[in-house]
Structures are given as structure tokens and as C-alpha cells.
Amino acid sequence: MDSAALSPSINPDEAAFFGALAQDWWNPKGSSAMLHRITPVRSAFIRDQAASHFARSVRSRTPLAGLTALDIGCGAGLMAEPLARMGAAVTAIDAAAQNIAVAQDHASAGGLAIDYRHTSAEELAATGARFDLVTCLEVVEHVAGRDSFFAALAELLVPGGMAVLSTPNRTAASWGVVIAGAEYITRTIPRGAHDWSRFFQPAELAEALTNVGLHVARQKGLGWSPVRGFVMGDDLSVNYFMVAVNS
To answer: Among 6, 48, 113, 221, which residue's Cβ finds the most Cβ atoms within 10 Å?
Structure first.
């Protein structure tokens, strides 16, 4: 077994499940269709939060220029690539070697220099690597050793650095939308991708971040508008973003 899979936060079964989807990751109509649909909203939210926190202009084509960014649980690079295009020096990690291979090929074809690594948050933190911005999107619900993971996430942030996380809420609404709707009816998420019982409610995620010394600065819900599609708002019942600062 590889060293990444031995890290306390890594569930080898989860890594194998998502690694098996690697070749289809960049197909907007494939198994990652939902991620493709929400990526523009994610990117805009992260850009706006980072621009505000680091005093950058959202009108700049490269608002993250001069910043180091880490994407934890990067898959095949759906968020790492927008971060790089916004000017950040990006490192991206994943527990599945297959995902990293596909991510490297896709970034190379697009002329993007992204430091992809098959490793865990704990292993990377142990190297002394530190980042201005850490993104962790739809990952914490898949983590095995949660205490170890959040301690590593905090350690990976420089003083004054910012983390942006997103995850489904543990509510009846999220079960209906994410499990019943997306996994079983529309098939826009692979069946079996989620265990609803492991979803974080906002108070639980905030407590986990606070316990490792991070300050929760903001939370926003991801919702759906028949007119606008996916939008950010105040309804946290299905899926939400949480911004935390290493103050």
C-alpha cells in the first residue's frame, strides 16, 4: 500500500472509488457532471473571498498573482486549473494516483504549471510546506481521521492565510438532493459516492476548524435558481462554503 493511503485521514476505499473515475473526470457530461456545473460558482466565490482577504482587485485577470495556493483532494484538477489561471502558484494533492496522472496530463495540455502530488495533507504538512490559500472542496465528508486531517489543514496555512471549504450539509434536504436526486435519479454524481451520515453540519465543521486554531470568517450556501442556475446565498441546507482564517 502506498504511503498516502497509510495517512490517518485517507480512506483507501474512497481513494480507490474516485481513482476509478479518473479518466472520465474532464467529461462535462460524465461522472463529474455536477462538479463541472458548480465549478464557475466555486471559482467566483474563491476569487472574491481571496481578493477581499488579500486586498486584491476582482477585476484583475490574475487576482491571485503572487499567492501560493493548495487544493486538497484535487481530483483531476477542476479547481486547481482555475486557481492557476487566476495567477496563483498552485500545488494540488489527491489520495488517488490515477487522478494525479490525469490532472498532470490535462494541465500540461493546457500549458498550466501546477505542482500535482500524490500525497496526503498530513504528509505534505510534515514537509514544512505552507500556503496563503488552501481550498478543500467536497472533501471533508470523505475523510477518515478527521482530527488528523484538520490539524494538517491548519498547519498548511501561513499566518494570516485563508482556507475555503465546501461540503454537503447533513439534512433531509441534502439527502433528497445529493443522494436520492443526484446519485440515483439524475446520475450527475456517481452512485455510492457519498455516505450521508458523514456529512458535516455547519456547526460541526466550524467547531472542527476552531479546535485547530482557525477563525471562521464566513459561510455561504450553494443553491439553485431556475433562472440563474447554481448561485450563492444564505440557505445552507443542502451544500455550503465555509471560509476560515489562520489568525
So the answer is: 221
